[in-house]
Amino acid sequence: MKSISMIIPAYNEEHYLPKLLDSLELARNNYKEGPRALEVVLVDNGSTDGTAEIARERGCIVAHESKRIIGAVRNKGARLAQGEFLTFTDADNQIHPDTFNAIHDALHDPTIIAGATGVHLERMSLGIAAAYAIIVPIVWATGMDTGVVFCRKKDFQAIHGYNEERLFAEDVQLLWDLIQLGKRRGQRLVRLRRYKAITSTRKFDDFGEWHYIGLVLRFLISLAVPWYSLDQVARRYWYSDQR
User: What pTM was estimated for this model as a whole?
Assistant: First the structure.
């Protein structure tokens, strides 16, 4: 059995994936349990480029999931994972060199249920800063973050993993479900802010520097108006076939 499994959902990620795998290799070699104690599982979600080939050549376990729902893709990787601890990150991230050591220490603390590292953005602009200003108070208030998300496999299974009905925010629900599980045991969520991943700003490149404000407004409308659905917006934003 491995100590840690890193699970990467991927769709047409040949541009970004090599940078992530370079950072994973460094962190893997730094891992106190040794690189053999860690595995990387990439779940290809129907890519038409060289994503799967790149991952396979770099020593990843490559699986395939045809269902175009991000929760299903992450769950497929989790089912195959042999690690005691599960970690999840996106293919356009680059992780900190000591990520796995930090996660190892956190999940060996019985008072911690799960956590995330958070992210640095690869570039900044006024529009991106405005989006960041919206997100940060939510992170502070909830303790939920992004970047590399991690938990024990047994706890992931106890909450039945990611919600495969959600087109988006499946990661938020996962952490919320883990928080509720942890509350019953006196456990807490942790943010490993010293070990933030670097994430791409490709959504801002694709949709504009200020697009996030409109996205948040649509989300707020969906909360207030029961018949207003975000499914069409979500499919264009997260499931576009343009990459």
Answer: 0.94
